[in-house]
Amino acid sequence: MNTFLIFALLVALMLTGMPISISLGLTVLSFLFFLTQVPIESVALKLFTGIEKFEIMAIPFFILAGNFLTHGGVAKRMILFATSMVGHFHGGLGLAGVLACALFAAVSGSSPATVVAIGAILLPAMVRAGFPKRFGAGVITTSGALGILIPPSIVMVMYSVSTNTSVGALFMAGIIPGIVLATMLGMTTWYRARSNNYPRQPKVSWAGRLKAFRDSFWGLALIVIVMGGIYSGLFTPTEAAAMSAVWAFIAAVFIYKDLSLKDVPRVLLASANMSAMLLYIITNAMLFSFLMTHENIPQAMADGMLGTGVGLIGFLLIANILLLAAGNFMEPSSIVLILAPILFPIAMKLGIDPVHFGILMVVNMEVGMCHPPVGLNLYVASGITKMGITELTVATWPWLLTMLVFLVLVTYYPPLSTWLPQQLGMITAVR
Amino acid sequence: MMKVLDHLEEWLISFLMGAATLIIFAAVLHRYASGVPIPGVQDWMLGLNFSWAQELCIIMFVWMAKFGAAYGVRTGIHVGVDVLINRLNERTRAKFIIFGLLAGAAFTAIVGTLGATFVWENGAHQAIFKLFGLGTGDLPEGPTTPDLEMPTWIVYSAVPLGSYLMCFRFLQVTWGFVRTGELPHHDQSKVEGIEDVADVAPPDLHPQAKDQK
After folding, report:
1. Among A58, A114, A120, A160, which Cα is nearest to A376's?
2. pLDDT by residue (tens digit) across A230-242?
3. Does the distance separating the beta carbons of B71 and A44 come in below 8 Å?
4. Closest Cα partner for A66 from A114, A103, A99, A101?
5. A156 to chain B nearest CA, in Å?
6. B96: nearest CA partner in chain A
């Protein structure tokens, strides 16, 4: 009964259009006040201690780093490098877009940021090179979603915070699925481009490729700093995030000089604005999960679910459908923060690896970002291309379909995500 | 007056963002640099103590989060589920928006008050009375943080201060909406520093190709 009441209240408040963070907070306050004996003062303390974890602080750092990279010319050089490598195949610039998105995703933790960084430069260039606008928009919208799958990833930090899974292991686990998805999206691009006979770029010599690589070195080095630093134990994930923010700042301002010192306060303010919004959702989601634990909801749900005799395969199917459905209403951070505490205990009881489940959630979020009504990538891409959302949705379908195939693969073939972290000894093998 | 508050808010959160980054950067550098045996320098390095960096970073980010959330109300970055209400007619939709904004104001006001009570009972009362030479009676001194040994009530005062500011911002936005019918809107698709795509000169995507001819 209480479970039903809590969720009914939450959904009702959310549907009025108020900020998700506020509806979470109000649900908790009113429930605690009217229906329990929990001293409501404890809520105040929770509002501070909810985010008093060093792991969470990786989020503002990654956002700051991402903003410096987006504004600082790193994206442009990555695109040039990607074009020099794959531009001569069918659908050259499209493939380059997939590769550039994958590279940028490896230094940035957010999908919309990836779409902006790569799309704003590449899409106009593609149209000029003779590609239909829809083709370019479709490629970039979906490839941009790699941003949260290829580490570093803000959504993974959110998942690790709400389920106590190691951030480092999640990051490592994202690498192989990220490469696989990038390859699949690339193949779709190649196939579509070949059947429609889209233009190809002239082939670039190895000397030219080397030069493009050297130009983008400062951006690419970040991949080594973040992943190498975390894996070797030189940095914690949060420290790696701070290092990458400083590195990105130096690269943008002093090396590429695409950003002047007086732009820096603006970048700081924009990053602070975005991170504060996410941290505010986290605090309120923490309150909410405190309430759920207090009412024993995750436990009861897990027992109920197991009682119905749903097996592993059935549960994964339900989880996927639930997550995809939620992707129609909310953005990824909120979904992960609200649903992970509920689904995670069930997954654990069924013996699913926490890291595998995390990657599964992230891939679901990726799909949600690419379709209406709330797919953030779509809106960003529509802002760049000035295309309507409906037209853009039609444009993305071949790649969206590819992503759904990939989702099935990730869901039912756990080694795809767990193999690498196991090899690196970051998680123990599943029973 | 409003301008001063606006600027103070923006300046504070930008500063916290930048400073926290530099502190963690310095702490990491220090950890590895102090292992390098340079005579003189190493002793000096080892003498420095950065164990407080992590705690300070957390405190700074929590402060940034609380005040940044208030700033976010002003920039309209707090997103909600607007799929449903966007389908309603203009008048009903306006009612829902005002309800949402006022709910935000109510929530932040309650949280601010809860936070203020908590801060007051955990040392602020004692500290302030002591400061003004009033009798502190048998009021206990508040607890302090583990590394910095800062009184926790100062640290936690971010909750009441930030929440009240946020409440004020919600009311401000509501008032603006009632008067002009406009909401602050954070445009995700617009990125600072990137102008309208049509105006940006395209980068030369294959400079090397020319060299070969």
Report:
1. A114
2. 888 888 889 999 9
3. no
4. A114
5. 19
6. A16
